[in-house]
Amino acid sequence: MTDFTYAVDADGVAIITWDVPGKSMNVMSLEGFRELDTHIDTALADDAVKGVIITSAKKDFAGGMDLNVLAKMKADAGDEPARGLFDGVMMMHGVLRKIERAGMDPKTLKGGKPIAAALPGTAVGIGLELPLACHRIFAANNPKARIGLPEIKVGIFPGGGGTTRLVRKLGAMGASPYLLEGKLVEPAKAKAAGLIDEVADDPVAAAKDWVLNAKDADLVKPWDQKGYKMPGGAPYHPAGFMTFLGANAMVNGKTQGVYPAAKALLSAVYEGALVPFDTALKIEARWFTNIMMNPSSAAMIRSLFLNKEALEKGAVRPRDVPDQSVKKVGILGAGMMGAGIAYVSAMAGIEVVLIDAAQDAAERGKAYSEGLLDKAISRKKSTEEKKAEVLGRITPTTDYAALEGCDLIVEAVFEDPKVKAEVTARTEAVVGADCIFATNTSTLPISELAKASKRPEQFIGIHFFSPVDKMLLVEIIKGKETGDRAVAKALDYVRQIRKTPIVVNDARFFYANRCIIPYINEGVRMVAEGVEPALIENAAKLVGMPLGPLQLVDETSIDLGVKIAKATKAAMGDAYPDDAVDEVLFWMYDQGRLGRKSKSGFYAYDEKGKRIGLWEGLAAQYPVAEDQPDVTEVQHRLLFAQVLEAVRALEDGVLMDIREGDVGAILGWGFAPWSGGPLSWLDMIGAAKAVELCDALTEAYGARFTTPKLLREMAEKGETFYTRFAPERKAA
Ligand code: NAD
Prior knowledge:
Layout: E1 4-8, E2 13-18, E3 27-28, H1 30-45, E4 51-56, E5 64-65, H2 67-76, H3 81-101, E6 115-119, E7 123-124, H4 126-133, E8 136-140, E9 147-148, H5 162-180, E10 184-185, H6 187-193, E11 198-200, H7 203-213, H8 238-255, H9 260-273, H10 277-292, H11 295-312, E12 328-332, H12 336-347, E13 351-355, H13 359-378, H14 384-392, E14 394-397, E15 408-411, H15 417-428, E16 436-439, H16 446-449, E17 459-464, E18 473-478, H17 484-496, E19 500-505, H18 512-529, H19 533-542, H20 549-556, H21 558-572, H22 579-590, E20 603-605, E21 611-614, H23 618-621, H24 631-651, H25 658-669, H26 678-685, H27 687-701, H28 709-717, H29 721-724
Parallel strand pairs: 2-4, 3-5, 4-6, 6-8, 7-9, 8-11, 12-13, 12-15, 13-14, 15-16, 16-17, 18-19
Antiparallel strand pairs: 1-2, 9-10, 17-18, 20-21
The structure holds nicotinamide-adenine-dinucleotide (NAD).
């Protein structure tokens, strides 16, 4: 198998073409790197070759590094995994540096061969780091292409020289959105920012023209020239000093110090800026190794890259069901959720019939899409034509007959079993016998709602999160009788609308809400105990939760919390454990403090609805105790409230695959992403330590922290979740 092919054309230009067999997108492997190295050696040694173009035979250039390769480098090095990684990374640096120096005399900087990169489309990760080592980068005029270094998003940073080269090219400030935020841009913007050099209709032809005319001086990178100064100033330059000081503060502010990759990246940049280029590469490799050895990075890569992608590609899809792509979806209820579901469906090219009880309500639902599209147009992210096309797909109506021909229904009417049963029956009277019926309920058991259906095997839960257009996760819920075709339909639909699915079994609050409610409750409970609200909120954020529990309940609204509490209590009777929570919530409700929507809740808000700090009046009702708990204790309470529920969901068979438990937690409610998810976090601290903490929490705070049997057993056997429940490896 060859990933790169080599050919020299009639004008003496060697074309190295990247085309990984059997993949739609090129990814870099160790073997690939070695092949590339051999071709570069051949080109540099051949007097007939005037220069080199590195390009791709696919529509894109490359999607990055095969992250499994990095894991393999580690594994292959036996008891010296860090050495294995470092050596592997330095080998890559060696190849890239060879490209950059291209055979030139190191003293005179003359005699090198020009090497250009020609990118037909997307070039990310190592797919940009390789071009950055070339002498000139040409990208196709392809607005769909994305260019950048997204590594930080999965908990690592660009370790193939991208960090060192980009900072030296753009300066620390200029490079920061690309390195620290993983920003991806289209070619025209990449050129404007200085990431690439040229945008051309035919990048290979343009590159060839450049290669044949390049002079010695065109091949020397600024950092290899005498007297090179970093744009914006190195750390001890007054301007550079300001940049680094600011960047440090910004990174810590944004990440609360819990993302090791962001810190390591900054260290690599800072330390690298103080030394010559080749030493900087070595520093980058050391920090990269450090990050790859960090359990947080490994867990983030596993959940946010490998497993997220596996779920999106259908890892849990019933295998024998043929393609179930949706052509026409009927959405019942054009309220907040229905309107959002209509938008994402129409954006995916699906015909939408949007039903509400009154025509103006249905029209308002469609107008929501119009609003989003107008906003996108004002930000130059969409066009009038696209808007007309998308809106043209949405038919707002009160007429159920319009549902004829729909192959999927998503019901999002009021959260009332009677109303839901009525619309189910009305719909089934009109649609074909093959149509799958999905409900977006957040609290009602699917198996109960399915009783209103004549075809319970075609009845399923598709649970969206709000706001639908922004949230990445969709929870698919199987009722007792739900069949494989319904699951496949839901999964194919979620793939069409480009979200990440998890599939769970039916149980109270399914998976995400089951875990998030105890988190909110634990925070509210602490208010009742007299824990300083700022301590609760900050402890949560310092452990990587995007929102503290009090802010979260303000966002989701206190009346919703009251409604859920009442319904849960009614269902559980005497076993209901949350009276202490309800006391606070119900009191807030009685005060009319309903959260952000009423501009008053646990936080105070200005007239525009902007949060201006925690509400000081809370202390009059719930005085702050003199003795405050340690921040770690608060964090353990908040984390265990969630992770124990995830473990119980696994024990109960609600979760069927641990990957879904972790990916769903991060995408669904923002569970501390640095941890890789609740089950990854337990693996990180170890089951024995988890049991010890749980036992202590149970003694101090009560039975809700009781150690699940499964966890205790795992501690006794020394198991981890990812060994005991290793997902079967399926070719996705
Ligand atoms: P909503 O009140 O904003 O919208 C419900 C819509 O259904 C209203 O426009 C109403 O006129 C319409 N409707 C009611 N009866 C109808 C009928 N017989 N025929 C046609 N239309 C009818 O509510 P929402 O927040 O959009 O929630 C809808 C569903 O989604 C609920 O089941 C809710 O539990 C669930 N859900 C809500 C959220 C959330 O954050 N709001 C999240 C996930 C799921």
